[in-house]
Design a protein that fits this description.
Blueprint: E1 5-7, H1 10-13, H2 22-29, E2 37-45, E3 51-59, H3 72-82, H4 88-98, H5 108-114, H6 120-130, H7 136-144, H8 146-163, H9 173-181, H10 188-191
Antiparallel strand pairs: 1-2, 2-3
Length: 194
């Protein structure tokens, strides 16, 4: 799994996706050189009960050279990996790509994790893509991972407190995203003992 800092390679990344995608992950990982590092970890349970653990951040993503002729699934895997980049512009580019088509449930953790960060343009991108869609499965995923979900909401709110000057919290895109698209309710705090 992911320790404090380690090489980002296929052996690490196979835990970042459902087991059924292992061959796809290994193929995508062929384009990741040894100079690419990962730090921290994020752990979520998918709707079918399978747990995945992916890096909090990946450093050196500019060195990644993806294989050509990737399938649609392999492209999604690559975009999910690159959404963990330490570069906010890179994260924004790849979340846009993840959100373009139908969302398999294994993409939900990557979307949720990007939603608790400080880059408001990423929050706007996610909200703009999701707020007109049926988000029931995404809401189910968030309820299934309620402790992480509440922590993500708190983190998003904390970033608003630090960087959201001039915008009321009620109008903040992060709050709207968590409430409208992810199904956040204050009553969830009681479920995790807050």
């Amino acid at each position: 799994m992911v320790s404090s800092e380690c090489v980002c390679d296929a052996e690490l990344l196979v835990y970042s996706f459902p087991k059924k995608l292992e061959a796809d992950v290994r193929l995508v990982a062929q384009g990741i050189p040894n100079q690419v590092y990962a730090s921290g970890s994020c752990s979520y349970t998918l709707l079918d009960g399978e747990e995945i653990v992916f890096p909090y951040r990946i450093y050196g993503t500019e060195k990644i050279k993806l294989p050509v002729n990737l399938t649609a699934t392999q492209k999604l895997v690559a975009h999910a990996i690159l959404s963990r980049s330490n570069n906010g512009f890179t994260r924004e580019i790849h979340i846009r790509e993840l959100l373009k088509g139908e969302l398999p449930d294994w993409v939900f953790p990557y979307i949720l994790k990007l939603s608790d960060e400080y880059v408001v343009e990423i929050l706007e991108t996610i909200y703009d893509s999701l707020h007109t869609q049926n988000c029931d499965q995404l809401k189910n995923f968030c309820r299934q991972n309620v402790a992480s979900f509440v922590r993500s909401y708190d983190r998003m709110a904390s970033y608003w407190g630090e960087y959201g000057k001039g915008v009321s919290f009620h109008q903040y895109v992060g709050k709207k995203l968590f409430r409208e698209c992810f199904g956040y309710q204050r009553s969830l705090w009681r479920m995790v003992g807050c």
